[in-house]
Every structure is written in structure tokens, then in C-alpha cells.
Design brief:
Elements lengths: L2 E6 L20 H7 L5 E7 L20 E4 L2 E4 L25 E5 L22 H7 L4 E7 L1 H14 L3 E10 L6 H11 L3 E2 L1
Parallel strand pairs: 1-2, 1-6, 2-5, 6-7, 7-8
Antiparallel strand pairs: 3-4
Helix pairs in contact: 3-4
The structure holds pyrazine-2-carboxylic acid and zinc ion.
Length: 198
């Protein structure tokens, strides 16, 4: 099997001090670097939003971060502004070894659609192109690590499993947001989709 490591959103805004900080998000960076040597391919994802992005609470008058809204495609959490295209917050954590990556996938750049998953945007239909990249390279096995366990790692892992990839999530190399029980739901959802959690 050809095995890829997919490193989800290890960006400044998801690390302590960032706009949407995940507790201990920075603690996974060095062990992820060390893991990279064990894979046939290393792919990094980067959350990448225009400042008028519809997932930002500031773009919905009267709404606060962490409230829900109804989008054309269904319910959506409203977030503080984060990972704005070209900003320091959108940059990878400075200690992440980006030199080992053979692909960087950006997602969430369409103003009207959020994209937690590295495979499909939140309308669950718009593909990011990652599936085609993996298949054309003969990659059939994936290990996922990164931020946040219960959002982008979870959505990416579930989509990958549904697409037929052999998927493992290394939980020690992930950290979560845990909004209203989202961590427990994510772990259940990943298991139900056939993702191996280690
Ligand atoms: C993420 C919330 C909003 C993530 C991205 O990387 O998990 N979460 N945008
Ligand atoms: Zn985002």
C-alpha cells in the first residue's frame, strides 16, 4: 500500500495565541515532524479564508462567535475571524517542517461555503481535488494528524473512509476544540465510519 500522512491545519490561528486557539495545539508540531519520515507522501492542509467569509461571525450582524446559523447547505458554526488568506494566522506553525510536504492543499476559500474536510466543502458536494490527487498517485492508505480533532480532522477522516481509503487517526497527534460535546460525537462518528483511532 502507498501510505500518505495528511497533516490537517497546523496553523498559527489554531495554536495558543491564535484567533481560534486549540489548547495545546502547538504540542503536536515536533512529533508530527518526526513522523513525516515514515510515509511515502506528506500532504499539508491549510484553512484559507477570505475576510468576507460566511463562517466568520463578524460577517453576520448581531451574531457572536460559536453561535449557529443556517446556511444554504445547512447549519454552520460561526467562528471568530481566523486563517485569513495571507495573514500570519493562516501561516503554518513556524516549527512545522513544511519542507517535507509534497503537496499543500488550501480549503475554505469560497466566501459562501466553509470547508472542514480536506475532501469536500461543507455543502458536502464541492470537491477540493484531494481525492483525485491521492488516487492518481496510487495512495490508498492515509494517516491523519493535526487540528482540530473534532472539526477538520474528523470531517476529513470520515470523508476519506467513505471514499474507500484505509484511514487511521493518531489521536495523540491531534488536539480538539470540544464545542458542546463535539469531541465525543466526532470520535463516535469516526469509529462508525470505519476510521481506525489509535
Ligand atoms: C477548523 C473551525 C473552523 C479546523 C477550521 O481546522 O478544525 N475549525 N475552521
Ligand atoms: Zn476555518
Amino acid at each position: 500500500m502507498t501510505h500518505a500522512l495528511i497533516v490537517i491545519d497546523v496553523q498559527n490561528d489554531f495554536c495558543p495565541g491564535g484567533a481560534l486557539a486549540v489548547a495545546e495545539g502547538d504540542q503536536i508540531v515536533r512529533p508530527i515532524n518526526a513522523l513525516m519520515t515514515e510515509f511515502d507522501a506528506v500532504i499539508l492542509t491549510q484553512d484559507w479564508h477570505p475576510s468576507d467569509h460566511s463562517s466568520f461571525a463578524v460577517n453576520h450582524p448581531g451574531k457572536a462567535p460559536m453561535e449557529m446559523i443556517e446556511m444554504a447547505y445547512g447549519p454552520q458554526v460561526l467562528w471568530p475571524d481566523h486563517c485569513v488568506i495571507g495573514s500570519e494566522g493562516a501561516a503554518f506553525h513556524p516549527d512545522l517542517d513544511t519542507s517535507r510536504a509534497d503537496m499543500i492543499l488550501r480549503k475554505g476559500f469560497r466566501p459562501l461555503i466553509d470547508s472542514y474536510s480536506a475532501f469536500f466543502e461543507n455543502d458536502r458536494q464541492t470537491p477540493t481535488g484531494l481525492e483525485g490527487t491521492l488516487r492518481s498517485r496510487g495512495i490508498d492508505k492515509l494517516t491523519l494528524v493535526g487540528l482540530a480533532t473534532d472539526f477538520c480532522v474528523n470531517y476529513s477522516a470520515v470523508d476519506a473512509a467513505k471514499l474507500g481509503f484505509d484511514v487511521t487517526v493518531r489521536l495523540a497527534l491531534c488536539r480538539g476544540i470540544d464545542l458542546d460535546g463535539s469531541m465525543a460525537a466526532a470520535l463516535d462518528g469516526m469509529r462508525a465510519a470505519g476510521v481506525t483511532l489509535v
